[in-house]
Amino acid sequence: MKIIIAGAYAIGTYLAKLLSRNKQDIILIDDNAENLERVGRDYDLMTIEASPTSIKALKEAGVKDTDLFIAVTPSETANLTACAMAHKLGAKKTVSKVDNPEYIAPQSQDLFHEVGVNSIIYPEMLAAKDIINGLKMSWVRQRWDVHDGALVMLGIKLRENCKILDKPLREISGPDDPYHVVAIRRHFETIIPGGNDTLKLYDLAYFMTTKDYIPYIRKIVGKEQYVDVKNVMIMGGGRTAVRAVKTMPEYMDVKVIEKDPARCEVLNELFDEDKLVINGDGRDTALLVEEGIHNTQAFVALTSNAETNILACLTAKQMGVRKTVAAVENFDYVDMAVSLDIGTIVNKKAIAAGHIYQMLLDANVDNVKFLMTVNADVAEFIPVQGSKITRKPIKDINIPKGMTIGGLVRGEEGMLVSGNTQIEAGDIVVVFCYDVDKKKVEKLFN
After folding, report:
1. Beta bridge partners of residue 432, listed in sequence order
2. For residues 362 and 384, is the Cβ–Cβ distance under 8 A?
3. Which of 118, 225, 304, 399 is paired with 235 by a 20 to 30 Å CA distance?
4. Rounded to 10 degrees, what is the CA torsion of 400, 404, 409, 410?
């Protein structure tokens, strides 16, 4: 597949990293020579120093033979213009990053299709969805629903109360048990576990289960004492915070702390009257106490500074808040945030790149999520009639190393799989991939 990425900034660079793992034919266009030099040095791709809206540069990049054109520069106007031009010059599919939430409304999609923009990415909305999912279950680091919740993947930090530590997985997660452990993050290592592996204290474990058994999972991992989130405090009033507040469930009460008085005025105009906006510094412990931090179940730090967000979450934890969420846009700080036990880490650039990455898989893929904390993908594959994965039970198929199947949805019913499971064409199959050539995975389903 030939892919052109316009914009060698955070999203484009991270996307190049994801794609370079699969040896895709990638061309990166940007007018910043320093950005291109850094990316070209680290990843296997071709770079062109030029404006992404240059007709000459697009033709030089071979846009007429391009399968996917992705515009992720900081300029919304440049992205939309570049996509329209790329489409007119022959690109099969185009994707544009935007900054205006109006553009992602369903009624706007036909307009953009007419001018040659196939897909719109609004990173702040994608990040807000991740944040809300995290707040709905205070004891879970990450949640991912398959087919409207027919299957659910839960990322959970294991503490002393966990009842299934230090036991071989074959004893606690067999064919008859209502969950599978599909991945483990231990210190800085990712493990795709086998039957002899065990769960250890402070592991971040990823469980695949069905919605009915979420309470059971909560019990065995010792998280029953965690209270549901009703009061939320958000530090930082940027666009991600606005999207999160506007999509927050009605039963949650939210306060937004913002340092800039002018931005506070804007927020008061954007929010309903029941949303409280406070002018102050979210790191000020006296302010936090005054605003009820001791009665708050979740603290969300969404300023533009990763260090500030990490420190604020640590402060909130010391003051008794169980659920903390930190926006960490600097990739260099992600591992540090995880090791400090911050809680849920949100990186809207990685989320956006993962969303675009979904479009690049050749198989019939309905959804894909890149799990930054374990450097792995979890995806919904739909096998076609006669594909290799449907010919034999799973135990008799040579599955690539680094791939594991978490479960499947048949009709509307979610089910876990065992070695004896026979996958059928049309099933929605949840596949976990770590350090594996995606082409080998795709061939199983095509």
Report:
1. 378, 404
2. no
3. 225
4. 50
How many C-beta neighbours within 10 Å does residue 202 have? 15
- Distance, in Å, from the CA atom of 196 to the CA atom of 193, rounded to the nearest integer, reads 8
Q: How far apart are CA 42 and CA 189, in angstroms?
A: 22
- Report the C-alpha gap between 422 and 430 in whole angstroms: 14
The reply to whether 173 and 242 lie within a common domain is no
Same domain membership, residue 113 and residue 19: yes
Predicted confidence (pLDDT) per residue in 204-259, tens digit: 999 999 989 999 999 999 998 888 899 999 999 999 999 999 999 999 999 999 99
Q: What is the pLDDT of residue 78?
A: 97
Residue 403 lies in a domain: yes
Q: Which residues constitute the domain of residue 206?
A: 128-220
- The token pair at 34 is 């320093």
91-133 pLDDT tens trace: 999 999 999 999 988 888 889 999 999 999 999 999 998 899 8
Record the tokens describing residue 98, joined without a space.
């935007």
Residue 184, judged by CB atoms within 10 A of its CB (0-12, 13-18, 19+), counts as buried
The answer to the question of residue 339 being in a domain is no
pLDDT digits (tens, 9 = 90+) for 277-333: 999 998 899 999 999 999 999 999 999 999 999 999 999 999 999 899 999 988 778
Asked whether residue 375 carries a pLDDT value surpassing 90, the answer given is no
Quote the CA–CA distance of 48 and 104 in Å, as a whole number. Answer: 30
Residues 94 and 57 in one domain: yes
* Tokens describing residue 185: 């993050």
pLDDT at 376 over 50: yes
Overall size of the chain counted in residues: 446
The answer to whether the CB of 7 falls within 8 A of the CB of 72 is: yes
Q: Distances in Å between the alpha carbon of 223 and those of 141, 142, 212, 231, 388? A: 12, 14, 17, 19, 40
Please tell me whether residue 12 adopts helix, strand or coil conformation. Answer: helix
13, 75: one domain: yes
